[in-house]
């Protein structure tokens, strides 16, 4: 070897490892072993008196410096909370966090947030990051959620003591999904007859208020009968007993019983029963939850409907129906499966505003003119009569009648 490479020699260091070097009277240059990559270039540079080029640093996939946001993401992915998330939530969070990690700290410098220690994060940095997404405020909100997940990991690992995102608020205005108009519903129903997959999917989303994963996974064996006592009378209701797919891996999902309305019963009677699930494709196989978004857009296009009408919009339409029927917030929550009041009221805010505004102005008109505000009646009266027989009254209990004077006095009271 020394004959082939003059000046090359080896020695054993104090740790027992063999080292190689190029040595002359003037200088000694350390070299990699002859069997290692880059040896020939390093030897030639040593002979010519040039600086030995260093091997390029190659970052291995998944590698991260200790205490950085990259390391925090590695630890997040093995945490119990992360593993309990459903696959769709994992994909969404991974996409947003990876986008954050690859963002440059300063636009004209190659340093990215993946390699920045979490302890160096300040509130002004977070606000500047969110400002980059001012055109997409909801994406900025979800990005903030992803950053906070990494910060919480750093807090648990004692990398930091204070959460720099705690004082950051980002709450963009949210109008929710667009509810379907009655005209759009009529047009869709005219195009897609009973028994088609399009009509079945539409009916499940509208009359059960299900999300797309629950629509795709609804099974015939989940159809049950429940006994319910209303005003002391036992009644039997046909419906679906389901466990919502949302948060199923993390909390077990919320269990709901939703009764089958006559409108849905008509759809179910004509549905294809070849599969285990209620909704099946032309081959009798279930749809995937992800495919239903594109399929509903396709069905709407064939029905001549404009863009923007979604499967989740039918869920909101049921919320609007409930609001127009003056269902309580608690009733709306138990039909749609919400846990927080604010989210439930989002579906009925528009319908409630119109009805309450008319009722309020009607009171003003009655006060000023002593006459009710006239509204143009359309069709036959819907719903229950305004005055029902009292359960316990002065005429002997249920089913008793009231005299006109008693009815007037009751309304005044």
From TrEMBL:
MF (Gene Ontology): DNA binding
Keyword Transferase belongs to the record: no
Gene3D superfamilies cross-referenced by the UniProt entry: Intergrase catalytic core (1.10.443.10)
Keyword Magnesium applies: no
Superkingdom assignment: Bacteria
Bias (Polar residues): 402-413
UniProt keyword annotations, A-Z: DNA integration, DNA recombination
Region (Disordered): 374-413
Tyr recombinase domain mapped to chain residues: 175-361
Pfam families: Phage_integrase (PF00589)
GO BP terms: DNA integration; DNA recombination
InterPro entries in UniProt: DNA_brk_join_enz, Integrase-like_cat_sf, Integrase_catalytic, Tyrosine_recombinase_XerCD
PANTHER family reported in the protein's UniProt record: INTA PROTEIN, PHAGE INTEGRASE-RELATED
Protein name as catalogued: Integrase family protein
Organism in which the protein naturally occurs: Mesorhizobium plurifarium
Lineage start: Bacteria, Pseudomonadati, Pseudomonadota, Alphaproteobacteria, Hyphomicrobiales
